[in-house]
Design brief:
single chain; 437 residues; mainly alpha; 19 helices
């Protein structure tokens, strides 16, 4: 009955959004409360779960999303995105734009959290789409596939890193195996799959679409790349420093503070305010107006993501992920396929890749101690399953839909199917790799 109640809650969410045309934020609140009652959470605790879910998700994301929107708006308005797109097109050519986006997503996605990479690179996607009259989803999916795969498969991202520690796997070996699987996975789910998405009607947020500027008004190539990608350099640098430095070191707390994604985005915005703003003869009031416009455009996105967090928390508090995992534990199948399947089902029901991966880890752990499976491949199999079919209960689904401004149907046809491809191709890659090691 537990799984049935989960599906009822999700169906109610879908019907409120698609049939009754409710605002998604309101639909999330209603379906979250319904799920709480159906799954047996005491009535006096349901409101607390909803609030905890909204606050927990926004606590991690709100600074990143808001600062990222401001930085993205400035990168677009200053002409930096135009300069970057011109350089990329001169290297790859317009015909290979999807490969350019895939490579960019891979390079940025290895050190950055998915949400940070998303808000940093979306303005570039929209600029390329606008300037070269290309469908936005066609341009964006390869980049998003790369970001998503690196987030789910590769340490030092949170879930893979935690799984490596829990299974006693080798971080370097897991990363090496992961890269072997990641490359073909993002090629199939990125440039190849994108060919089928050219007819999707997307109207990207206008805040990230600036009109082309004359060549002489554009910032320089170094300034453009440095200002737009400074968060990448800064996060990588602070991460390396923390790995090389003991926690007892005097500077460790300060490096950890400035290395937090929210602080990185704030520092990056301040630097860009000078390099792309004041240095390019913008006045402070004009820059602040740009930032205000950026936040107006993403206000509803923030609320929708908060709603997704509410539903996720209610499902977690009800214990549904553990119930699903326990019911599937007795399956007599290949350990890697079993781990992938449990993770995929929890992911579809709960919506969180991290929760799905870490829940499965507790169930699958005895297999590792028994020596029945390579722990490095197990990390990758769970990582692949954790990306399975992102839909209404996943904040990533709504970020894609709202930023690209596409219909629910087209979001499923593009984003959700891309995530499914990533999960399935990733599992196939793990099983093939197992034959050779």
């Amino acid at each position: 009955m537990t799984i049935l109640f989960v599906f009822v809650s999700i169906i109610v969410l879908i019907l409120f959004i698609t049939w009754l045309k409710f605002n998604p934020f309101l639909a999330f609140l209603i379906s979250s409360i319904l799920a709480g009652f159906l799954l047996g959470i005491p009535p006096e605790q349901i409101a607390g779960s909803v609030q905890k879910g909204m606050g927990g998700l926004l606590g991690d994301l709100v600074i990143v999303i808001v600062m990222g929107a401001m930085l993205g708006k400035l990168v677009a308005e200053s002409g930096a995105a135009q300069r970057i797109s011109d350089v990329l097109m001169s290297i790859f050519g317009v015909k290979n734009v999807t490969w350019a986006m895939m490579v960019t997503g891979l390079v940025v996605g290895i050190p950055l959290f998915y949400n940070v990479g998303f808000v940093l690179l979306v303005p570039l996607v929209f600029t390329v789409s606008y300037r070269y009259k290309l469908p936005a989803v066609y341009v964006g999916i390869p980049m998003l596939a790369a970001l998503s795969v690196t987030h789910g498969f590769l340490p030092p991202h949170p879930s893979p890193a935690a799984l490596v520690a829990q299974f006693g796997a080798n971080m370097g070996l897991t990363l090496a195996y992961g890269l072997i699987i990641v490359i073909p996975t993002i090629i199939i789910a990125g440039p190849f799959f994108a060919r089928f998405l050219k007819n999707i009607d997307a109207k990207p947020l206008e805040t990230f679409q600036a009109k082309p500027k004359p060549e002489e008004e554009l910032p320089g190539t170094f300034n453009s790349f440095f200002s737009a990608l400074f968060p990448v350099f800064f996060l990588v640098g602070t991460s390396i420093l923390m790995l090389q430095m003991s926690e007892e070191h005097t500077l460790y707390p300060y490096i950890k503070f400035v290395g937090d994604p929210g602080m990185v985005m704030l520092i990056s915005l301040l630097i860009a305010t000078y390099s792309l703003g004041l240095r390019m003869d913008y006045k402070i009031p004009d820059l602040m107006n740009i930032y205000v416009e950026a936040t107006k455009d993403i206000a509803m996105i923030v609320l929708i993501i908060a709603g997704a967090g509410a539903l996720k928390q209610v499902l977690m508090d009800s214990g549904v992920s553990q119930t699903i995992a326990d019911s599937l534990q007795g399956w007599d199948v290949h350990p890697l396929i079993l781990a992938w399947s449990i993770t995929a089902i929890i992911r579809v029901c709960v919506g969180s890749a991290t929760v799905a991966g870490l829940t499965t880890a507790g169930i699958i752990a005895p297999m590792v101690s028994g020596g029945n499976v390579d722990p490095n491949l197990l990390v990758l199999a769970i990582g692949a399953g954790s990306l399975m079919f992102s839909h209404f209960n996943d904040g990533g689904f709504w970020m894609f839909k709202e930023y690209f401004n596409v219909s629910i149907k087209d979001t499923i046809k593009s984003w959700s199917l891309m995530e499914t491809l990533v999960a399935v191709v990733g599992l196939i890659g793990v099983l093939i790799l197992e034959m050779f090691i």
